[in-house]
Design brief:
- By secondary structure, the chain is α+β, with helices and mostly antiparallel strands.
- Helices cover 29% and strands 39% of the residues.
- A hairpin with a 4-residue loop joins strand 3 and strand 4.
- The longest helix has 21 residues.
- This is DUF8176 domain-containing protein.
- It comes from Nocardia speluncae.
Length: 173
């Protein structure tokens, strides 16, 4: 019986540590005033050397970026892939006529990776934008649990449509 209690305590401690690593907490006060509330946000798992950064030359990290520019759309795509594990969410920043797999095919790729896969996206501009089109060099560091980190290199094209930047092509390099 003692061994079972020790094993349960060890598992509980490990799960608590895992949740602490995967979550961030912040305090929020409603705009109308009121009581501070502690909110937990599940954060995607970043590779050990991943740095959230944005300079004119380079963008890197794991957070969703939005659709303000191509680098943001690329970050959002990969956040959906690795962080949210959702092919549907990944396709939300992809143009309908894009040379990118369907959300179902993206989901197959996501499901082939174990939970806990770490990642970090590095984006640099490849060429100057022309007629609302921009090309990007992308490196995605990926680390499957228990395996060494590998880097996937991509050439991504984005286009501005109705005030949003969407991905129009992703090609492995």
């Amino acid at each position: 019986m003692h061994h079972i209690r020790v094993a349960l305590a060890t598992v509980t401690a490990a799960l608590t540590a895992l949740v602490a690593l995967a979550c961030t907490a912040s305090l929020h006060r409603p705009a109308t005033g009121g009581t501070l509330r502690l909110t937990y946000h599940i954060a995607p798992l970043a590779t050990p050397d991943c740095v959230e950064a944005r300079t004119p030359e380079r963008v890197s990290g794991t957070r969703p970026g939005g659709t303000a520019d191509g680098a943001d759309a690329i970050l959002t795509f990969h956040h959906a892939f690795y962080g949210l594990r959702s092919g549907t969410a990944a396709r939300e920043v992809v143009a309908t006529d894009a040379r990118v797999p369907s959300s179902a095919d993206i989901q197959v790729g996501i499901d082939s990776l174990p939970l806990g896969t770490r990642f970090c996206v590095h984006v640099t501009s490849a060429l100057a934008a022309t007629d609302r089109v921009q090309r990007w060099n992308v490196e995605v560091a990926q680390q499957v649990p228990g395996a060494p980190e590998i880097t996937h290199r991509q050439f991504v094209t984005t286009r501005v449509e109705t005030g949003h930047t969407l991905i129009t092509a992703i090609a492995a390099v």
